[in-house]
Amino acid sequence: MSLLLVILIQAAFYALLGMGYVLIYRATRILNLAHGDLMVLGAFLFFQALVMTGGNLPVAVAVGLVGSAIVGALTYFGVMRPLAGYPVAVGVLATIALGIVLRSLTTFIWTGQTRYPGEFLGQLGKPIQLMAGLSISGIDVGIIVVAAMAMIGFPILLQRAAIGVEMRGVAENALLAAQRGINIHTINAVSWAAATAMAAVAGIFFALKVRLGPDIWYVGLAGFAPALIGGMDSLKGIALGALIVAAAEVLASRFIAPQIAMAAPFLILLVALWIRPWGIFGSKEELERI
Amino acid sequence: MSLSRMTVVTATCALSVLIATPALAQYKIGISGAATGPASPSYLPHIEGFRTYLRQLNDKGGVNGNKIDFVLLDDKAAPSEAANNAKRLMDDDSVIAVSLMSLSSTYAPMFQAASRTKTPVLLLGQAVCPANAATSQMNPYVFCGGSTSDPNTAGFWQVPLVKALAEKNKDDLKLALVAADIPVSRQGIDNMEKIAGQLKIPVVDKQAIPPAAADVSGAASRIIASGANYVTSWAPVTTAVQMLGALRRQGWNGWFIHNHSGDAEDTLRQLKDPKLVMSPEYAFTVEKLPVFAEIEAAAKKYGVSLPVDTLSLGWASGMVLEEVLKKCGSPCTREKLVDVLNNISVQTAGIYPDPVKWTKDDHTRPASFTAYAWDPKTSSVKRITDWARVSAGKLATVKVLD
Questions:
Q1: Which of A176, B41, B56, B134 has the fewest CB atoms nearer than 10 Å to its CB?
Q2: What superfamily does domain B26-148+287-367 belong to in CATH?
Q3: How far apart are CA A46 and CA A97, in angstroms?
Q4: What are A60's strand-pairing partners?
Q5: What average pLDDT score do residues B279-289 get?
């Protein structure tokens, strides 16, 4: 039972991470390899606000999310938009460069000191006893709840809201969408903003749960495997991809060795790529277009 | 006309003096360290502490009238980067010594280059001493001046410490061992397992965690399932804290005894977990040594915003280098420097309780250990054992303070 709970928490975290990859991929067909660094930046914005407000969690979260969304939109306009029309690989390489720049910037601003913002959580960070031998911390409850809200909320937004419909339109055929009067650059910027805000959500949770430092960018890469397994352009695929990856990691770690846990998701990814390279819920034609 | 001639004469004289004066002599020192990357939290503060010491030393006039020209290169804790750095520093920049502040996985290329170019390599900051440092197999150009004794020595303190704490708490001790999945760390817990066997301590689980693991909840659940009530780690602090967090979130309430790191005191202060114990080989700032005030003043002067306790090991490394260069004189060659290093003893104002002392046959640093934990009553970090001199092969005597 406790193992199932651990898998669920882990899957929720991976879903939050993977969602950022999917949102950007759907909109611009770019695999954003700066996702981990954007995650770190969002977490540091949150941390800075937390310190400056003396531990006001809601304000700090708002600063982290809004700040990240702005950074995401600016990234689109400043870095990605000028590369429109170039091969996709150029955009991907640009995200690698962006990641390195962001990493240096966060180290320059916040130094390499490891921070543990979890100390601001108080009782939220403490385990809650659910039943005999089964406990969960407040922060883990938060991860599950936020991931569930995002998994339900984003598809509804895409189906019902005007901006969501426009995002879908741009994702399906940008040229047609533009001809219909949709400002595709604004829509792409919104996608980047939303994805970067999601990266910040994951970064904030990781910082509160584990630690915060410029070095944690690699955690962001953990969302890559769930996104690929679920389908790079599929939000609903993320949930399943995240569950598969989390289960593989946790079970390998628990019953074999932690070293295997790191490899397990990627072994599954390899198998998934052989059988269904576009992911469980991904679109076949999109992959072929790449 | 005469004024013009005077000007020309003066200018010529001035030029002659300038040409005749030799360029300001310098000691060229290389620093290769994990300034970025997953291991950087453990090493970057020491690099900063070291740089800060050297900067203030240069501002005071340097050593023997020579400034220290330090070339800092980031190895990202990657062996390939370390190999590049070794080549650049030893071959291209012709430094007289390299200070290495990084993971043990970077040692091999650096040590090979040291042998080839006969350049001394000082393991400083938190760099772990190789297990063969006190044997004839030790690379003759490598000297251990870092805060972490070889994995064989550390276990002879840490396992008796666990036992002493369990006895004091009247706990039926069941021990789990945690390492980072890097060679020296694994060696550390292998050695601890043997020592635990000698002390008849049941080891119920043993794990090596990949340093880049995003989550260790599965590994933590295995420790909990094993029934361990004490966990001890010999690993980078990030691995230890990640495991401790995962254990606590799953409701585990046991003791976690970690070796240490350069930011061990800062970590205790931030986590405020009274059952997390750090067992360093150097003094925390709670000891209130005068040198900590010096470090604080220098950090302020040079705009270094890291806590003093994270800078102290780098500062001590600078003190060692200063003394070595002082003895080497001017000019100081690599060969002369090796001779000096093979016969030196340096006090570090109490940061290390024993002098950093090397001989031709022993390139380790004499090690004394203690333990600190967070005291919720005083809301401060507190030393919980006496200091104990420890050497490989001899079980330490641990006295837990009240």
A1: A176
A2: Response regulator (3.40.50.2300)
A3: 24
A4: none
A5: 94
